[in-house]
Task: structure prediction
Amino acid sequence: MQPLLRRSAVLLGAFMALSTLSFASTLYIYPSIGPSGYSTYLNTYQDAAATALTQGATSGGVAGTPGYYAQVTSTVSPYGLIETYNSPGNFFSWMGSTNPAVDFGATYAAEYGNDLYFGVYVNSASTFTLADVGFSGDTLNTDLSGVSFSSHTIGGIGCTGVNTPGFNYQTDCTSYFDGSLGHTGNDATPINFLWSSGIAIFANASSPAELRALAAAFAGQSINQEYTLGESTSGPASIKVVPEPGTVMLFGLGLGAVIFARKRSLNRG
Result:
């Protein structure tokens, strides 16, 4: 397996902490499991995630498809953070199955595994930029610099009624940025609300045997990540990787040694 650092875009229960210092902001982090960065359903998933976050929903999109968004609580399967696109060893998979069309249905036939996403919602009394939002923890330390606004990374100014059913940032914000015509922006654009499908982390398997080995190695480990803005923090999303039935747990392979990050897809419209 070759470690490749790939940045692109994008975990229920909200994990939250707030501070009155600096930006006087509140940040929420929402973990979820979604498709890999090579999925044709990636944009569908990310759009569903961002839309759900703007309305305070825990799920969104079409159930039974790879584009369906559903937040997770404190535990995930190890297969929820393993991709299987690693040329020349590409093979289709979904949540550990190497025959996803049979095990999950035809819409999953051409999937290349899964990523663990950390969605984020930020509400700040003062303006901030995407570049001000940090992401740190056990596996990754980065920020949202280099990200542009899109349908799954949405910024707003002067918004009312946020994170409630029926909220529409296009009508309920004084200004908004979603990458559409006339509403473009970048990592230096000032905003005071942010909803994003978030940064994704994943490992990469180049064969079914490596897929099983990685799943066994990850079982029992924890992933702790958080978003920060100045002195404010979302507090860590602490995700426990639970072994699948029949999986033999292996030790000595740290998550940080094989986990990569993706944020570039946050720029896709």
Summary: Residues 15-267 form one domain.
